[in-house]
């Protein structure tokens, strides 16, 4: 067991306890929150073991805090399927998590502790937040919204079946722009402050941008199979840009 994931586990339980005392979580909220906390701890421990790490870096601590906030959003989303949740609380927690997404990268660069593990950790937290927000928005906006949150995971499954999808890609800032749009549109939908037809149009636009970004990268990887395209650049942390980078930090 590594100390970082264990600290994260205790932090998650502390946040869930505070959230429960403030607004109530019920059985569904606690079940989702505990499952998320235990699963995250196990996956992080395994990832650190694979990477040969024994402790979190400064940026990883920021990402871990953001992961705990995502756990709270997960618990509230589970509650929303069986009852009402305080929307301002859910939106407020989500906004803080999105803002912190711009912090961990800067901390990593300022402390010269950027790593492939940190980039992947950040990416997975972002991806899961988008998935949870999609689940929260789906009952009111339409179940097709789940495609926004599921696309990254569909891509992962596709890489198991099609190894060429694991290839490296050139860094493209547009991926990060599209990722930011997904978070902004989904939290706006969760806030329920705009007319629903307008929210539906915004969600459809976000999904279209997401599809275009993934699609462009898939086409590039398909063409590179024949060896007619140049190799992608690998960043200083040793992590190549791939379609999954769509959900990395700004």
Give structural notes.
This protein is an all-alpha fold and 250 residues long. The chain is 72% helix and 0% strand. It contains nine helices and no strands. Helix 1 runs antiparallel to helix 2 (26-51), helix 4 runs antiparallel to helix 8 and helix 6 packs across helix 7. It is globular, with a radius of gyration of 18 Å.
Describe how the helices and strands are arranged:
Elements: H1 3-23, H2 26-51, H3 58-80, H4 87-100, H5 104-110, H6 116-141, H7 146-161, H8 173-191, H9 196-224
Helix pairs in contact: 1-2, 1-3, 2-3, 3-4, 3-5, 3-6, 4-8, 6-7, 6-8, 8-9
Characteristics of this structure?
250 residues; single chain; 9 helices; mainly alpha; globular; disordered C terminus; 0% strand; 72% helix
* Uncertain regions spanning at least 5 consecutive residues: 233-250
Outline the biggest β-sheet.
none
> How many runs of DSSP E, i.e. beta strands?
0
Shape: globular
Beta-strand percentage range: under 5%
Topology order in helix (H) and strand (E) letters: HHHHHHHHH
Q: Assign the structural class, choosing from mainly alpha, mainly beta, alpha/beta, alpha+beta, or little secondary structure.
A: mainly alpha
- Rounded to the nearest angstrom, the distance between the terminal CA atoms is 31 Å
Rg, nearest Å: 18 Å
- What number is the mean pLDDT? 88
DSSP helix fraction = over 70%
Number of helices: 9
């Amino acid at each position: 067991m590594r100390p970082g994931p264990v600290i994260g586990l205790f932090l998650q339980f502390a946040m869930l306890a505070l959230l429960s005392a403030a607004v109530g979580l019920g059985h569904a909220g606690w079940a989702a929150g505990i499952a998320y906390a235990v699963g995250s701890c196990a996956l992080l421990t395994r990832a650190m073991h694979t990477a040969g790490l024994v402790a979190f870096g400064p940026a990883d601590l920021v990402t871990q805090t953001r992961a705990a906030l995502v756990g709270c959003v997960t618990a509230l989303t589970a509650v929303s399927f069986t009852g009402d949740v305080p929307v301002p609380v859910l939106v407020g927690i989500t906004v803080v998590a999105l803002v912190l997404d711009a912090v961990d990268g800067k901390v990593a660069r300022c402390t010269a502790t950027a790593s492939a593990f940190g980039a992947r950790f950040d990416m997975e937290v972002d991806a899961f937040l988008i998935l949870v927000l999609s689940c929260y928005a789906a009952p009111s906006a339409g179940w097709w919204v789940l495609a926004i949150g599921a696309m990254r995971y569909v891509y992962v499954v596709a890489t198991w079946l099609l190894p060429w999808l694991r290839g490296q890609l050139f860094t493209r800032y547009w991926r990060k722009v599209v990722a930011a749009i997904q978070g902004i549109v989904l939290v706006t939908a969760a806030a329920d402050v705009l007319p629903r037809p307008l929210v539906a149009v915004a969600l459809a636009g976000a999904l279209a941008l997401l599809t275009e970004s993934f699609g462009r990268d898939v086409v590039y990887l398909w063409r590179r199979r024949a060896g007619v395209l140049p190799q992608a650049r690998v960043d200083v942390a040793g992590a190549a840009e791939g379609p999954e980078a769509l959900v990395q930090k700004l």
